[in-house]
Amino acid sequence: MRREEIIEEFLDELASASPVPGGGGASALAGACGCALAAMVCSLTVGKKRYQAVEEEIRADLAYLNEMRGIFLSFMDKDEEVFLPLSKAYALPKETEEEKASRDQVMRELLKNAAEVPLRLLELADTVLDTVLDVAEKGSRLAISDAGVAAAFMETCASGAVLNVRINTRVLKDEEMKNYLEERTEKLYRSASEKCAKIRGIVAGR
User: Where in the chain are the domains?
Assistant: First the structure.
């Protein structure tokens, strides 16, 4: 299958009424695109005499970004794995007290799982932004705009992950877990947003 056919097939599925792929998978894909773009800046930097002083660091960044790109792609599957059981659980019977208690227990666990996956995705985005920042500071100026676009993709990934955490925590009845997930999400998103703003400043300056 040609690449354009694969992309078109994914977009068709994304646009359909099917519950997956959805915002979680699209967010993970955005993270993978961000890694790929930052890796491209690295590839355009290594071997250039002008950037010889930072070549070792850039090569390390390149290897890391290529590894992380695969991890982001794996989260497209993880999102589907946790969401499908949850979508089916909403249809569980709740006529009797026993059925309600059983449904609540199942929903509590599935909602927790469905919130933890995008939270881990957000953690990844925040961590990878440190490398994108390094690439923006040291990479080839000829590709500096691509470092900025890489950060924009990563910011999209982070924003999407936040929304996917919150859509699940809003109905989570375990208050302790809900508060932990939401507080952790807020802290990570603030960190990621600050890094993206810093990268934008570096890109504009260079």
Answer: 19-205
pLDDT tens digit string along 7-20? Answer: 898 899 999 988 78
Apex CA 202: angle with CA 196 and CA 206, to 5°? 145
Find all residues with CB under 8 Å of 74, minimum gap 6, and list them.
none
Classify domain 19-205 by CATH architecture. Up-down Bundle (1.20)
111-124 per-position pLDDT tens digit:
888 899 999 999 99
No. of H helices and E strands in the chain? Answer: 6, 0
Q: Is the dihedral of CA 158, 194, 46, 59 positive or negative?
A: negative
- Measured in degrees and rounded to the nearest 5, phi and psi for residue 166 equal -70, -30
Q: d(Cα 58, Cα 203) in Å, to the nearest integer?
A: 17
Whether the predicted model's global pTM rises above the 0.90 cut: no
